[in-house]
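step=predict obj=FAD binding domain-containing protein n=419
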Amino acid sequence: MTMSRRIPVVICGAGPTGLTLSALLSRAGVQSVLLEKEQDLSDHPQAHFINLRSMEIFRHCLGGLDKSVFAASPPKAQWSDFVVCSSVLGRELARVDNFKNDAVRMGQRVTSVEAARSSSAQGPAVTVADAATGAREVVLCDYLVAADGAHSSVRTACGGGPGGPGQILGQAGLGSMVNIHFTSPDLGDWLKREGRRPGMLYFVYRPEVVCVMVAHDVERGEYACHVPFFPPFERKEMFTPEKALETVRYALGVQAGSAKAPHIQLVTARPWTMGAQVARSYQPVPRVFLAGDAAHQFPPSGGFGMNAGIQDAHNLAWKLAEVVQGRADAALLSTYSSERRPCAASTAAVSVLNLRRSLRVAEALGIDPDAPAALARLLGASPDHPGSSAAWAAGKAAMAVGRRHLRQALSGSTLQVLI
């Protein structure tokens, strides 16, 4: 194991939050090292919407990055509509118009953190393992920023457990989802062929699948399909590549092998859990800060997650620069948590409100979003627990009844509901 020289700031996690923080610190003249456990960049889509405040940060603080974002963005006409439908190519029920970095070291997994005992003590010691060689190194720093996602190992190591200062509080388990990333270069042509303007979000309701499809880039054929599943009656393992492709075809309203079907290529299918949670403190121990998903998680309704992380980085970067370069007392850093945490708490509340509003469409079609959880509780209280064959059969039968009800509801007129 080797020991590195001391570095002012170590950032754990090279997602949007960590990259933004690294770029901002670099522009402020503060040296940092950005550690990312993955060896390559991920092409699996997650966030897809950058809001006004984040664009302001890109424009004023990152050398006009907003222009590059605009240049890479699809046309506004393809991103202004939310569409509720029986399938993407089927019946439409409703339509709403609505950098330069310091060192980035890929394949570096943080295995342990020895935090400072006080703000006046020396900074954290971060032990890092190289994914390719297994070699270990201790990186010394004045400040450590955890931007390593919802399952942050740094947060866990620095008081993220129950009752700890970094504990995540709020509503966990709001839903179990699978994000199916697929490409279809000709799907956009099919959408236009139907005489419609492509939308940004498609809320699909049909007996075979209920999901939200995100059109990341119609011209390049990049899409993601977010599909809920309901433990214990359904499991993430059921989404094999074949099942994922079948689900996408149902969502599009096409059959495999049909001459009229657009070509579909599966990229990845990954499960995730929806929650609305905020850390008890953004500075759980001296000289360690939480940012992005390590500090907060929101439902995707509203597109706040990545944007909140970018804004965390903006708030923290200039304060770190002032303190590291000796222009401000370290007490300035305590304002990061007091300023950003209330923003996250209010954003979580708005996200949950948006989620509840979006479920009005399902309720108008006679679907009770809380029914699977209620059924699981009911069966869990019975002698035949949810894992038993009898409870499993009862759950599947109840879901089949729900599908028949939805089929009948979809046979009616165009949906009229305030969303």
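step=describe
The chain has two domains: 2-62+99-167+280-357, 173-274+365-410.
step=end
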